[in-house]
Amino acid sequence: MANSDKEIVVEDPTAPGADSPAVVSNRVVDAAVMILLLGLAVLLGYDNYRTGMSWEDTGPQAGYMPFYLSVILAGAALYGLVTALSSRDAAATDAFVTRAQLSRVMQVLVPTVLFVLMTAWLGIYISSFLLIVGFMWGIGRIAIWKSVLTALLLTAALFVTFQYAFDVIMPKGPLEAALGY
Amino acid sequence: MEAFSLLLHGFSVLLTWKTLVLMMVGLLLGVFVGVLPGLGGPNGVAILLPLTFTMDPTSAIVMLSCIYWGSLFGGAITSILFNIPGEAWSVATTFDGYPMAQQGKAAEALTAAFTSSFIGSLFAVMLITFLAPSIASFALKFGPPEFFAVYLLTFCSFVGLGREDKHKTIISMVLGLLLAGVGMDTVSGSLRMTFGFEDLLRGISFLVAVIGLFGISEILLTMEERLALRGHAARISLRVVWNVWKELPRYWATLLRSSMIGTWLGVTPGGAIAASFMGYNLAKRFSNDKESFGKGRIEGVFAPETAAHASGTAALLPMLALGIPGSGTAAILLGGLMVWGLNPGPLLFVEHKDFVWGLIASMYLGNVVGLFIVLSTVPIFAAILRVPFAAIAPMIVVSCAIGAYAIQNAMFDLWLMVLFGVVGYVFKKVGIPLAPFALALVLGNRAEDAFRLSMIGGQGDLGVFWSNGLVGTITTLAIVLLFWPLIEKVWTQATRRLSSAKA
Q1: CA angle in degrees (0–180, nearest 5) for B392-B386-B308
Q2: Label partner for B19 (CA 20 to 30 A): which of A1, A176, B128, B229?
Q3: Helix (H/G/I), strand (E/B), else coil: B387
Q4: What angle do CA B426, B312, B475 make, to 5 degrees?
Q5: DSSP state, A179?
Q6: Beta carbons of A69 and B105 less than 8 Å apart
């Protein structure tokens, strides 16, 4: 029989509060994205113009299609900029991200960036171990032994999978070198 | 009946222990990813794609398509038990699915959802079986202008029929096309848009972009929200399954209608969301008892699930037959095919018969096996939600990083992945859709080659796209679709004026 009186409840003690102040509004981000895209369009358009965007005897030059695509991108971004600035939509003034939300996003983004940095000289396995332990213990406030055990098992599993089963070369660091891999 | 014998051959390719095990693993991984809040079809396939890089193409695609089925099945679990739609097309499933769970009928709702997903997919797979070969053999006659016209049709229908702001869809698509062009130009061999960076010579890898856009960005988005969950636990017993299945024939009209809507919308890009809502609304309209919808009616689960899955599966039809993906997930699968050096499109049916029919056969098998797996493992998967996100998030980051690195063994790609993660996060929040971007990035080079080859053939005259009846029709249709919203507006105004003039 269906057993539906049992509930699954997961708490989130560090959830971002609803009353957190806005860092930036939708309108501002929308406009900023459009300006960035416009800049990108101009940059790419210029580069393709330099590459050559006209016709040769053999057909269109390498920059032909991307040049016109840049023009379309510039047009759409410009239109987007105007609509973003003139929008009377109530959602435009809503928070793009609140301070509490931003700090949570940074909690993932910053470790991810550090992880990629570490990978370059520690190798991907040690970095993965450190990322998982650091994240579970430091941000998730999960008991240290659980964090270390999970990270150790997962990293070991990854190592065995990629080193032996799949034979894929992953970036390795000094520890692997010392162990002779 | 040629299709039938080829299909049987496909089954014989598949029926090895190794493939069956891969299938199970793929399904379980897929359900796992599908159950995690915020992660769905495209994310799951993007994150798990790298696992398949070292397999032979047939095993790999079998595993990938099973991951896809699994994540589709998994999405229904969170929608019904937790009222959290994993994907936009699961929204309609929550309307009646969650009320059923609240009334203690979670097991019935889940069985209904899984069964109707199965029926919807099966309908679409049958369509693929019988239509794809003929479409492909028809498309063998296509030259570059025809192919470019079909690409154009795909791009235009995304813009014309999509629900997002038109200029944002255009931005997303054009950006994808531009980034596809970075690096060595395939026709002339000259470099473009590399700005002297050696790492850009190789171009921007589609899969790296997709892993960033759909993997990393999804974690950022999920973290931002409140992660607390409250939902129902459920166990499905054989008796419940039997009771639901016994009722199935009564809903044949709903199931058939939703399957047809789903396959039709699935073939056109971006249709699954529209399909699920349309399936639900039509079931409501044709019902004698409209009031009971939204209060836990089993038909309200059947209708959207059948349509969404039929459409998700039908999206693979244009991908296989023409090399044009009908959805974001299909675009990622297409990128996967290209990693193994397979060129999706009409030639695939001639050159890699084993592969194509193995894939189609795996859709049948994956569906059947998937249905039984999800029916029997719901309690385990619902419990996955108890695993804290703080443990899952770093694992997904690691899995994404391994995938991004494995594609070209380049550290640069890891940075690109992080960059695309941030871009995906911002784009999603300002309403720039990601699916057109993925589609454009994967099709960009082929679309450009087709364009340039046709222009060379036509000596620089755009008239080459109207040079015969076939290509002319497709091109015109593309342009009509691009301006569809405008045409529709003018049309309604004209008819209104006409009717008011009459009155």
Answers
A1: 80
A2: B128
A3: coil
A4: 80
A5: T
A6: no
Neighbours of B206 (CB within 10 A): 25
Take residue A172 and report the two structure tokens written for it.
């390795």
How far is B214 from B217, CA to CA, in rounded Å?
6
B342: left (phi over 0), alpha (psi -120 to 50) or beta: beta
The structure tokens listed for B246 are 């016994």
| Cβ–Cβ < 8 Å for B133, A38 | no
Read off the pLDDT of residues A52-104 as tens digits, 9 standing for 90 and up: 878 777 777 888 888 999 999 999 999 999 998 887 777 777 888 888 888 88
Q: Cα separation of A135 and B19, whole Å?
A: 36
Give the residue from A123, A83, A98 showing the smallest Cα distance to B432. A83
Q: Is pLDDT at A4 greater than 60 in this prediction? A: no
> Do A104 and B418 lie within an 8 Å CB cutoff?
no
Question: Biggest alpha carbon distance in chain B?
Answer: 72
- pLDDT of B37 higher than 70: no
Asked whether B58 and B13 are in contact (CB, 8 A), the reply is yes
B460 CB-side CA count, 13 A:
9
Residue among B342, B360, B366 nearest B10 (CA): B360
CB contact under 8 A, B401 and A109: no
Q: If phi over 0 gives left and psi between -120 and 50 gives alpha, with beta otherwise, what is residue B49? A: alpha
Neighbour-count burial for B108-120, b at 16+ CB within 10 Å, e otherwise: bbbbbbbbbbbbb
Query: Closest chain A residue to B165 measured between Cα atoms?
Result: A80
DSSP state, residue A123: B
CA B496 to chain centre: 38
Tokens of B287: 């019902």
In 3D, which of B79, B80, B77, B86 has the Cα closest to residue B43? Answer: B86
Bridge partner residues of B478 (DSSP): none
CB interface of A with B, residues 136-165, below 8 Å: 136, 139-142, 150, 154, 158, 162
User: Residue B370 — left, alpha, or beta (φ > 0 → left; ψ -120 to 50 → alpha)?
Assistant: alpha
User: Are the CB atoms for B201 and B345 separated by under 8 Å?
Assistant: no
Instruction: Give the minimum alpha-carbon distance from A176 to chain B in angstroms, rounded to a whole number.
Output: 17
Distance (Å, rounded) from C-alpha A17 to C-alpha B259? Answer: 42
Is the Cα dihedral A61, A65, A66, A71 positive or negative?
positive
Q: What are the extents of the domains in chain B?
A: 2-502
Tokens 């957190």 map to which residue? Answer: A20
Mean pLDDT in residue range B128-154? 86
B99: CB partners within 8 A, 6+ apart: B294, B295, B296
Task: Give A150's contacts in chain B (Cβ within 8 Å).
Answer: 391
Which residues fall within 8 angstroms of residue B261, CB to CB, at 6 or more apart? B275, B278, B279, B282, B307, B310, B311
Residues near B401 by beta carbon (within 8 Å), at least 6 away in sequence: A115, A116, A119, A124, A128, B414, B417
Q: What is the 3-state secondary structure (H, E, C) of B239-261?
A: HHHHHHHHHHHHHHHHHHHHHHH
B443 pLDDT exceeds 50? yes
**Is the separation of the CB atoms in B457 and B144 below 8 Å?**
yes
- Cβ partners under 8 Å of residue B347, min gap 6: B140
Nearest-angstrom CA–CA distance, B27 and B488:
42
From B354, B359, B360, B331, select the one nearest B124 (Cα to Cα): B360
Which tokens hold the place of B279?
Answer: 């399936």
